[in-house]
Backbone:
């Protein structure tokens, strides 16, 4: 399995109000890592052209840092500029769609066990990467759309002590049941549009019930929004994160 990564991280501590949030982005079906970079930049009010395109570049003084994962998952070495904000790693799913492009985390229509297994493989690799001392100072915020939202949820379930927050944007939730409790310290933000026909209503209701049962979930609903992200959603997440 191969995970592409693009990122922008300030590894320097210091200052009166250091930015210690590290966003970990996971795109939806058929997209790539640039999707979540655009959303992260919007939440953080970043309009830099290079960042918006989803590619990290060298810092003006030429200082860079690199990160890669070891073990069964090979990742693309990435240069992280140390002077720009926000801090993020955005991941590209390991499976490419032939001919029409884009990537996916698990096949459309696969079984619950296959879906969970794929999420476990990705989650284990990401957590192994984050185990580096370079990432210890950061509060880690998962953010994912659709398939990436479900992946983020499964990462919290399987690694309950790693992530400080999880932003689930219109997450897929097929195969989950509200009766299975979640024990974790993670804050959740769950977002759906009322006109979302991609995620079945029953799955949306399950996600709401399951996550609100943790006592640490904010639910946001957007009238008329389909399977997408809207301006009000970005504003709500800014407030939720206190940015």
Residues:
């Amino acid at each position: 399995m191969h995970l592409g990564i693009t990122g922008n991280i300030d590894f320097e501590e210091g200052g009166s109000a250091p930015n210690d949030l590290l966003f970990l982005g996971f795109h939806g079906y058929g997209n790539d890592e640039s999707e979540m970079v655009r959303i992260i930049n919007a939440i953080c009010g970043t309009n830099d052209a290079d960042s918006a395109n989803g590619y990290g570049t060298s810092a003006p003084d030429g200082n860079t840092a690199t990160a890669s994962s070891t073990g069964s998952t090979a990742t693309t070495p990435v240069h992280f500029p140390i002077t720009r904000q926000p801090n993020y790693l955005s991941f590209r799913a390991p499976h490419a769609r032939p001919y029409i492009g884009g990537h996916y985390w698990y096949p459309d229509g696969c079984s619950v066990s296959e879906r969970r297994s794929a999420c476990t493989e990705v989650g284990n690799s990401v957590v192994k990467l984050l185990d580096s001392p370079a990432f210890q100072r950061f509060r880690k915020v998962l953010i994912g759309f659709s398939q990436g939202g479900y992946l983020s949820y499964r990462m919290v379930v399987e690694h309950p002590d790693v992530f400080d927050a999880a932003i689930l944007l219109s997450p897929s939730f097929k195969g989950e049941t509200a009766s299975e409790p979640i024990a974790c310290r993670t804050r959740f933000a769950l977002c759906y549009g009322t006109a979302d026909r991609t995620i079945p209503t029953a799955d949306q209701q399950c996600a709401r019930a399951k996550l609100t049962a943790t006592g640490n979930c904010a639910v946001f609903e957007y009238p008329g929004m389909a399977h997408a992200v809207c301006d009000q959603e970005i504003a709500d997440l800014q407030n939720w994160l206190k940015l």
Remarks:
- The two ends are 35 Å apart (CA to CA).
- The helical segments are 33-44, 49-52, 112-130, 147-158, 201-212, 231-241.
- The chain has six helices and twelve strands.
- The longest strand covers residues 2-8.
